[in-house]
Amino acid sequence: MTPDARPAAVLFDMDGTLVDSEKLWTIAMDDFAAANGGALADATRERMVGSNMPRSMRMLLGDLGLPAEETDVVVAGKWVATRVTELFGEGLEWRPGAREALRAVRAAGLPVALVTSTIRSITELALDTLGHDTFDVTVCGDEVAGRNKPLPDPYLKAAALLGVAPADCLAVEDSPTGVAAAEAAGCAVLAVPCEVPLEPGPHRALRDSLTEVDFTDLGRFFPLEAV
Ligand SMILES: [Mg+2]
To answer: In the prediction, which pLDDT does 202 show?
Structure first.
């Protein structure tokens, strides 16, 4: 891609990137811990951010000193999903600049994908806020055969569904797990931390907020060394 070219598509993470929902996941996990007579350690919760449900449940159960066999993971996942569904149903807040970013990218005529570790049923609730017609494709955490972030598969699947090369895409992420997935897929990454700090890196542009990004001028993210 030439330095002044636009990305072929923009691939957005959801939780913590477009909507301020990581804190709702934290409430659900804390409620599960309390219901089981324990408390989730902050460090464990930080490591979960951006992860899919089974991986997060294994960390949660492990942190609480509870059995984490397959059935335990499934039961805990259903409990947390039910609680998060309640919380998402009470309404979601946009992350600063996210609504404007989506609007600008769509106005520029670029394909847009949602690439989330969250399961489809909960994602559909979030789409009530984000818009069910906002994305050309949506890839959810239960649609990648268990090969979730930080593996590249969710981003590779989104790019394939859009018919574009991952290396020509700009991914927008907020978590170390998500950034790792997008970079492993070969995407350029716009990294905007939410709950967990992010480090600078060679394939990522680090910003404090989406409000700092001119989404009508995305060519400047290629090559990333120039930004
Ligand atoms: Mg995220």
So the answer is: 83
